[in-house]
């Protein structure tokens, strides 16, 4: 009888522990899902002419929808990916919605980007932005248009430049 | 001895169950927190001259940071709250980041807004936007500036108008 009771106790404990850990697994799956869902769809792969690493761009507003003033898009940088150096003839605004990364103007210290960061990029300033090595970065970009152009692309950010920012 | 074993088993089961439900409580608290945190801070109460109900506005970019082109802000509408009717002299873009609500141009059917909705509002079109009755709405607004103005405010949306949209 003593042995039967022990066995019964073990069975009950095992059931409770398995049920508990199953619930936690479901919670974790839901959390991962929730966290990986950005506000907008992922969009299309960014061109390797303009980006290093895995980047996706989702167009949200075309200039012809809004008096030719700007385009709006969501850019998703996987860990370690980034834009080339570039300039905007009429400036750009970045609104960071997820993750962690960097914004750097040529010759200046980099600025850390996290969820909620806002950057108003002046016109004609050479700069790059992208994810940190360990974490992806998602931002909305409002790219102002001048003479039918919103960006002038330059050289890729090399490993030495990136490593000096994300040490 | 049989009684001691039963007591021991009960004690172990209770400990496991309590520990399990505590973990779940913590997970739930974290989830609730995660879901209620918008991308940007809530900001300041919106003026009752321009909104009906509880609305908060967080300024993100001023026109003087971006060549005078536009302002950018986050607007949070609690359930049932909305803008007055209004027009924009150079248009506006809405990017919905959370919740559910409505956009309506004068004389047209309302358009449902959910997370991920994008609206490019033409210049000089009378319209309103706001939350549904049951769910809050959070959107980013890019408000284009013309002659130092981004909006002309008109009459509040009356209950009949709102009820005919959110039935």
From TrEMBL, chains A, B:
Gene3D superfamilies: Jelly Rolls (2.60.120.10). It comes from the Bacteria. Keywords: Signal. The lineage of its organism: Bacteria, Pseudomonadati, Bacteroidota, Bacteroidia, Bacteroidales. InterPro entries: Cupin_2 (IPR013096), HNL-like_cupin (IPR047263), RmlC-like_jellyroll (IPR014710), RmlC_Cupin_sf (IPR011051). Residues 75-138 form the Cupin type-2 domain. CDD domains: cupin_HNL-like (cd02233). Pfam families: Cupin_2 (PF07883). Residues 1-19 form the signal peptide. This is Cupin domain protein. PANTHER family: BLL4564 PROTEIN, RIBD C-TERMINAL DOMAIN CONTAINING PROTEIN.
């Amino acid at each position: 009888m003593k042995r039967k009771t022990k066995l019964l106790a073990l069975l009950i404990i095992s059931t409770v522990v398995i049920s508990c850990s199953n619930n936690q697994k479901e919670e974790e799956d839901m959390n991962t899902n929730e966290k990986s869902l950005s506000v907008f769809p992922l969009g299309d792969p960014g061109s390797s002419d303009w980006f290093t690493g895995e980047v996706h761009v989702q167009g949200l507003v075309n200039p012809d929808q809004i008096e030719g003033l700007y385009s709006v898009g969501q850019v998703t940088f996987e860990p370690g990916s980034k834009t080339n150096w570039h300039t905007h003839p009429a400036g750009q605004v970045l609104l960071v919605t997820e993750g962690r990364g960097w914004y750097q103007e040529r010759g200046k210290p980099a600025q850390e980007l996290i969820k909620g960061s806002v950057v108003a990029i002046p016109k004609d300033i050479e700069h790059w932005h992208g994810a940190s090595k360990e974490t992806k970065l998602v931002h909305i970009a409002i790219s102002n248009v001048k003479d039918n152009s919103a960006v002038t692309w330059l050289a890729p950010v090399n490993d030495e430049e990136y490593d000096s920012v994300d040490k």
